Each structure stands twice: as structure tokens, then as C-alpha cells.
Amino acid sequence: MIPVSTFKDRTVALFGLGGSGLATARALIAGGAEVTAWDDSSESVAKAAAEGIPTGDLRGLDWDDVEALVLAPGVPLTHPEPHWSARLAQEAGVEIIGDIELFCRERRLAPRHPPFAAITGTNGKSTTTALLAHLMKVGGRDAQIGGNFGPAILGLEPPKPGRVYVIECSSYQIDLAPSLDPAVGILLNLSPDHLDRHGTMEHYAAVKERLVAQVEAGGTAVIGVDDEWSRAIADRVEAAGRNVVRISVRERLAGGIWLDGDTLNVTKNATTEFTLSLAGIGSLRGAHNAQNAAAAFAAARALGLAPEVIATGMRSFPGLAHRMEEVRTIGKVLFVNDSKATNADAAERALTSFEDIFWIAGGKPKEGGIAPLKPYFPRVRKAYLIGVAAEDFAGTLGADVPHEISGTLEVAVESAARDAAASGLASPVVLLSPACASFDQFRNFEVRGDAFRTLVKALP
């Protein structure tokens, strides 16, 4: 745990008692704050009270005495409208912050600021976070990994020499961290997502931009430049005097890290300084993972690792569950769990990684459906559609792609496995890349991916 001393002997209201909220409450109490915590769920309140966290309905507080409202990232701050607790704080002129902000304030108080890398983007955050932490460990560092991926940030071990923090940050967390100032900030990419919580793409992008625009003095901003939003951000951040490393998997860069075939090229002033082949690294298959690798390479260099050490770490990276996870091969058929692909943009990355795909897709649809994926339909030999989106997806596929409405994941896996085995193709792939949220049939994408893995492992 990282005790939060910045609110010692001061009154703090806390709303949201999920995993990160409980960790934050513990850290505030350990640092000497006077905490009153609450949640709209009576079960969550009871759980907090049972472990000794002071609870009380925030509507009964004297807000004149409250120094800050610490809001869990899942609680709306602005859209579609502020949560009632946020409104109370706003009306009282009380600052509203989150656990990332508390960590940043504690870090600035440490005698030596521990290295801190923050990672964001619409897609690829978790893989990049895990990969960077893996590289740091290969390089002999004590890498603490958490935030939006893994443990809550305040549940990590406190700063000490040789320790580095590798933290995934969602847009919700950045929105609650006004003084976020990492040593290395990574912005991978931007595409429409979470607009129900941010209102417009402009606001969503502006929130993400803060993570790289506010890197500490002497720090490094690593920015993907393969979409217009991020490219414009890179230009603005550099114009403001920050050190920017651009990365691309679509174009050659005179300065930065870019992909040529399956090789990353590290260039400066149009001169290649280092190359790294990603061929044969199954956990980094596809252009989307090349982008993740480029970002992690740039961040690891900024944090002091030698290119040769980084290359060694890349080759030993095991990958993440539910993100292009190679589950099993039966005969010639490879089964891939990409359950984390909850939107079309994420599914695109999987579809570009294989040629002969037996595609399992569907669930609770997001805006735009799978229409943006039409350029990749020729790679799909057959689609197996599940969940609420099945009928709409069938309409989009039309006569372009053979398909069936399987309804459930169990039926889809059985049918896809049978058809792929009988296809006679050299390298068929049964790919779960749903392009949908899971909430119609599964609690989350992890449960959906676990179900896929279990079904595949049960195949004869």
C-alpha cells in the first residue's frame, strides 16, 4: 500500500467502493486522513464498514469542512450528467480527484521521484503496460504495474530506489488527475469510445492529451501518429517544448520508431540507430501489437534500458489473456482468444493478423457495428454470430461472407472448429474477436474469454 499523507488530519469524502475505492480508502486512512466513504450499493458500503472504513451518506456531510471528494473512476464526472456526489462537491467548491491524482501528489513528495510511466489510448493500453513492465523486469528493475490494468495504484508497494511504476490510465482516471505528470507518457491511438461519458470526441481526445502534454520536466511523451487526433496532439505537445517520440506502423519516420514489414526501425535525423525484428514473437503478432511494441521500446529507452536488453525482453514476452491469446492448436487449426476486442477498431487489429479466419463475433453491439470492418471481410472464410448483435451483423455481412447465427459461444466454437478442420486450408484460425461488449451474455470480456478457452480445451 502507498499511504496518502497529503491529506493527513484533513476531511476527505470518498464515493465508490469497488476495488480501487477500497484501496484508496485504506491508503487515505493509513496516511492520517479523516475519511467518510459511501456508495450507491448498500452491499459495497457494508463490505467497507466490515473492514473498518468509516462510512456515511455524503448527503449528510458538512461540505464546508471537506477538503476533497475522491471519486472512483467509474462514477460519472461530467456526462451524461455529474453524479449526485460530484454535484455536491461542485456546489461547495470542493476539488474532485481520483486515485491517480493522489499517487502523483505522493510521488512528488518522495525524496527522489520514482520513475513513473503512464499509458493511455483507445486500444492497446493493457498489452503495452504489461509489455513495458516485463521489459523493466528483464532490465533488473522492480516494476510495479497497476492502475486501470491490474491492482489499484494505491495498493502497490511504496516508492524505493530501483522501483518503477508502470500504470495504465483510462480516460476516466485522467479526468480525475489534474496534475498528472509522468516521467514517460504514452498515447497509443485515438478513436471514438466512451462518448457516453465524455460527450464528444473532442472532449475525449482533450482528456487523453493531458497525459502526454503534462509529462514532467525532462520527461518523454511517446505518441502514435497513425490517426489524425493523435498526430495533431504530437505536434502540439512538441510545440509546447516537450520531448516527443513519434511511433507509427503505417509510415516511415525520419525520427521515431516505425514498422517496415515485421521490423521496428528506431531512427533519429533520418538515420537508423537500431532495428528489432518481431518475426516469430506470437504474443506480438499483427500491426496493432507492433504499435504496442514500438511504444514500449520508446518508453523503456526513456527509462534507461539499453536496446539490446529491450530486444531480449520482447522475445520473452508471454502476452496477455484475452488479447490475441493463442489458446491451442488442433491439427492445423489455431484457436485465438481476442475477447478484449470489444469494438470494431480492436477487432480490426485481429482481422489484419490472419488470412483464413473462422470468425466468432457478436455480443452487445457498439455504435457503428462491424461496417468499418468490410475491407477485411475477404479474410473471413465464415462468421459465427452470437448475442444481441447477431441479426444486425448478419445483415452487414450479407452475401459477402458466409455466416451462421450460432446464438451462443458454445455453438459457435463447435461449428467453427468443425468447419476450420474440414476446410483443407494450410493455416486456418478460429478467432474470437467479438467487436462487441460482453454484457448481454457474460459479466465481462474476461468471463467471455475464459468460457472460450474452456470450450476450446474441451475439444477432442
Task: Give a structural overview.
The chain is of the alpha/beta class. The protein has helices spanning 19-30, 42-50, 84-91, 99-109, 125-138, 171-175, 195-198, 201-213, 228-239, 287-302, 307-315, 344-351, 390-397, 409-422, 445-457, and strands at residues 11-15, 34-38, 66-71, 95-97, 116-120, 142-147, 163-168, 184-187, 220-224, 243-248, 256-260, 263-268, 271-277, 325-330, 333-337, 357-362, 380-386, 403-407, 429-432. Helix 14 (409-422) crosses helix 15. It is globular. The model has no long low-confidence stretch (mean pLDDT 95). Keywords: ATP-binding, Cell cycle, Cell division, Cell shape, Cell wall biogenesis/degradation, Cytoplasm, Ligase, Nucleotide-binding, Peptidoglycan synthesis. GO terms for molecular function: ATP binding; UDP-N-acetylmuramoylalanine-D-glutamate ligase activity. This is UDP-N-acetylmuramoylalanine--D-glutamate ligase. It is an enzyme of class 6 (ligase).
Précis, in short:
Pfam families: Mur_ligase_C (PF02875), Mur_ligase_M (PF08245). One of its GO terms (cellular component) is cytoplasm. With 460 residues, the protein is an alpha/beta fold.
Counting DSSP H or I runs of 4 or more residues, the number of helices is 15
Please state the structural category: alpha/beta
CATH superfamily of the largest domain: Mur-like, catalytic domain
Helix content: 25-40%
